[in-house]
Amino acid sequence: MRPFRLLGARLALLLILAPISLLAIPLCQSQSEQLKFWGGTLMQIISLHAGVGADFNALDSSAKNLARKTATTPIVGASAGVMYMNPEDDRELDYGWRVRYLFSHSPKLDRSTHYIGALLYLHPFPNPYHRASGAIQTHKDCEDKPDGYPTPFSFVLGSGLSVQSNPYGQSVGGYMESGIALFKWFPLNAELIYRISFYPSNPYFESITQSIQLVFTIL
Known about the structure:
- By secondary structure, this protein is of the alpha+beta class.
- Helix content is 16%, strand content 51%.
- The strands form 2 sheets. The protein has an 8-stranded antiparallel β-barrel with strand order 1-2-3-4-7-8-9-10. It has a two-stranded antiparallel ribbon with strand order 5-6.
- A hairpin with an 8-residue loop joins strand 1 and strand 2.
């Protein structure tokens, strides 16, 4: 019986020490990977947005002659998606996607616009090994490789449905957009977007509108 008791005691000791031993094994996750996973992915599955846009050569529906003007418009919206599809490997190219709704209203033009579409984010540089792309290397990870902050910018491509309305009616069209996103691995970030929208021919709406928008992720 004594050998069995000894074996039982050793098994009990092994069960107690095994979790402690496993916790002692370091997880080799770089700082870049942690920023992309926590700040860029988990904390941005659902996000709120606010910003400002500039519409160029737009019809002023508040004027009788429908004069064309350039006007700034406030923007609010929300989005959902995955910013980094491969956040746990900072040595590979990465990408992300989002579905986004934005609303803008211009009191100056007496016009409101709804944007509903999808975006593709391209993170073209493996992080953080390309200093030329703005990555900041501060230390080395547990594999003795350069580590630090990821590349601060990414590229954005998107398209979707746009709906304009003014006192004369409503027009449904589509849009395409492209731009640069800044610090997408941090929950508070920004995007500078150029958008071109297309609408059916209508005397009270432009067939083509162009705008530049600065959109912030605020939550």
